[in-house]
Prior knowledge:
The structure holds two protein chains of two kinds.
Chain A: H1 2-17, H2 20-43, H3 49-67, H4 69-77, H5 79-84, H6 90-111, H7 113-122, H8 127-153, H9 158-174, H10 179-190, H11 195-203, H12 209-233
Helix pairs in contact in A: 1-6, 2-3, 2-6, 3-8, 3-9, 3-11, 6-8, 6-12, 8-9, 8-11, 8-12, 11-12
Chain B: E1 2-11, E2 14-24, E3 29-33, H1 40-47, E4 55-60, E5 63-64, H2 69-75, E6 76-79, H3 91-101, H4 106-119, H5 135-147, E7 153-157, H6 165-178, E8 183-187, H7 191-197, E9 200-205, E10 208-214, H8 215-222, E11 226-232, H9 238-246, E12 251-257, E13 260-265, H10 272-282, E14 285-292, H11 296-304
Parallel strand pairs in B: 3-8, 3-9, 6-7, 7-8
Antiparallel strand pairs in B: 1-2, 1-4, 4-5, 9-10, 11-13, 11-14, 12-13
Helix pairs in contact in B: 3-4, 4-5, 8-11
Amino acid sequence: MTATFAILKRELLTYFVSPLAYVFLGVFLFLAGVFFYLGIALTGEASLRVMMGNVSISLMFVLPMLTMRHFAEEQKTGTFEMLMTSPVSPVSILVGKWLASLTLCLLMLLGTGLFVAILVYYGDPDWGVIATSYLGLFLTCGVFCAGGLFASSLTDDQVAAGMGGIVLLMPLWLVGSASSLVGEEWQARLDHLALLPHLRSFTKGVIDTADLAYFALLTFGFLFLTFRTLESRRWR
Amino acid sequence: MIEVEHLTKRYGAFTAIEDVSFSVPKGHVLGFIGPNGAGKTTTMRVLTGFLPATEGRAVVAGFDVFEDPVEVKRRVGYLPETPPLYRELTVGEYLRFCAELRELPRGDRLRRVGEVMERVGLRGWERRVLGTLSKGYRQRVGLAQALLHNPPVLILDEPTSGLDPAQNVGVRELIAGLAGDHTIILSTHILPEVEALCAQVVLINKGKIAASGTMEAVRAQAAPAYYRVSLDAAGVEPAAVARAVGALAEVNVVQPEGDALRVECAPGVDPRPAIAAMAVGRGWGVRALERTIPTLEEAFLSIVGREGA
């Protein structure tokens, strides 16, 4: 626990003493702002539904860029050797790093609170739907951060880790729009694998255990793969 | 304190180290030398629990590295070849992070960080950013990190590489001060440093131990001791003097070396009394009769050869 917290603190310190955190917050809020405006302009609804879908896809590209350094850089600079020779389990290291990236995600999502404020000022949004939408988006962040960490653990090259993370996560999006290739019947089955249909339940205000299980499974799956990779790096 | 038995590490078809065995008693400093790529770093990484060995056993501070890696890690301070620093942090932030990783109790962390900084000569450097430090100061921070939890065993991979001569002396004095309380394995390319610090030496070459034991034993193993003999025989030709010395039963080889003679004997034989008696018998004076042990550098070169050079 102490070690996990130490690593979490260290990662957050690194985010905020470098331009990293500010760049991510800025870029993300800009993108979210664009989608928020488009969503309102196109539908005329006082809701975050359009924004949420588009934001989740942007996160698929943004978050691997955030997590790419987590293991790749440590392996390149040799600090990984220090972590692995201190009495800390790979799980603590992994969870500390995952929580750090998730903390930044939380800040990014909090930043979009401004848009909620605008909705409240001009319209009458459904608070329940807003709450479940944010829950869904946060769970999505958990999956993407875990996937990005997995990519980062595979290489000591940050750019490769970032691109690898995007390529790893993209199928979660692409399988949702493959109907022209596989036909409608198969598409209905593939939709179970795709991320957006699961997120859509949340943005409609529904919390379904199937959707929760989907996000939990992916997150744990990626974290487990990362753990195995860290372990195996020592054996190769 | 450190027992290494038949350690072998293979990467696929490549054998990094093969059948490496040695031991270091408590409080001793072991000098680990050998050419680049000989397997020094690999051996140290196995001992710190960073790499598992393919075969063999290693016990550090009473715990098996493969069975109780966490217990070993608690008792080892490790300075890798490149100090493992987060460039964007300050010295203080970094050492406090290490103190947490090293499970120091909350109340002791700050005090201990201060003590260690004092010890490695970093007082007043707390707020400096690691990325802006010179090589010598990075090395000091690396050492501070290894000392934080006051480990009984220290494994230092080239602690003086890249330092200027003054810093070198500083680190050497620091290590000499740590010996006794700590058991230390030290790898280095600077052989006079090993001669100054280490009672024991392991010379590793191409993954295998080429020589090991006390400093004297390793030096003698590489090239036997020889004697420098200088006799004052007025009016006698140098060649005749050499012949007279060579005629002694104790002496194997005689070679002129400047105005003296280089005398080699079988191991364990000391020809000095015989030479002195012979000189006295002939009425010659004795200017010098010295036993010369090869330096570690000579030993190193005679064992490793000059292939790499």
